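Hi support team,

I submitted a single chain yesterday and got back a structure, but I'm not sure I'm reading the token output correctly. Could someone confirm the output below corresponds to the sequence I sent? I've pasted both exactly as they appear in my results page.

Thanks,
R.
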Amino acid sequence: MIRFLWLDYRAALRERKVWFAVAIFAYAVLSLPVLVARPPAHVQAAMEAWFGARDPFTLFMFMWTDLAMNKLIATLAVVLAGGVLLRERDTGVLPLLAAKPISLPRYFAVRTLSTCGVMATLYLGTQLIGALYFSAMVAGFRPGPFLAAASLHVWAAVFATALAATLLVVVGRRGPGLLAGLLALFSLVGMAFIGFYNPAWATISLLNPISLGVQSLAHLDALGPGVIVPPALALILLTTATITAGAWSVRKLEA
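Hi R., thanks for writing in. Yes, this is the structure output for that exact sequence:
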């Protein structure tokens, strides 16, 4: 099981769609300092209203997380998870897999976990490179809080990938399944900051997994385990539940 997961992860890293994702992440790193240098007036006003400060690092973190990372994990999760199991069915390989010692639900779980691993690798690699690049290009940049916030938000990226894979097999058709994943993830991303600009909704917004991933932005001056660990654990549990639901729904493909 572990060896299969490792081999599938290594194989997935060589796929063309992964290199497409690398290019998109690289573009985000290179382009954001240009945008931060001249932030739109409405973004600056929102930062003053939500965070009560004109701290340039806070502005940078909002733009990096919302304008770049949230949008990318919603899109690339669907791209990376787009071939999980349905590709095997559409190419006629699924009956052969059903005859192997590994069950289809377990096969789905392994494929989804390896895809989540690819997303985490791309995401964390982007953050590490970004920490070096932004230190030279962004005034007031603080690599410590930047990487600490990434250690939480990466779990939102992993959850997004698991959700995209699960919706794909639940829907059962590639086109509608990909569309369902995009709609679901962009809805979650669109409401991720609702608790920031309307504090009355702060508690209920935590039902949104993507909102859990951005909670560190409210504590950039005091990031520690107490801020990062609880939402990270919640995201891990939600990801596990999502993959379990996908594995259960795969049984209908065996019929």
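A quick pointer for reading it: The chain has one domain: 2-254. Let us know if anything else looks off.

Best,
Support desk
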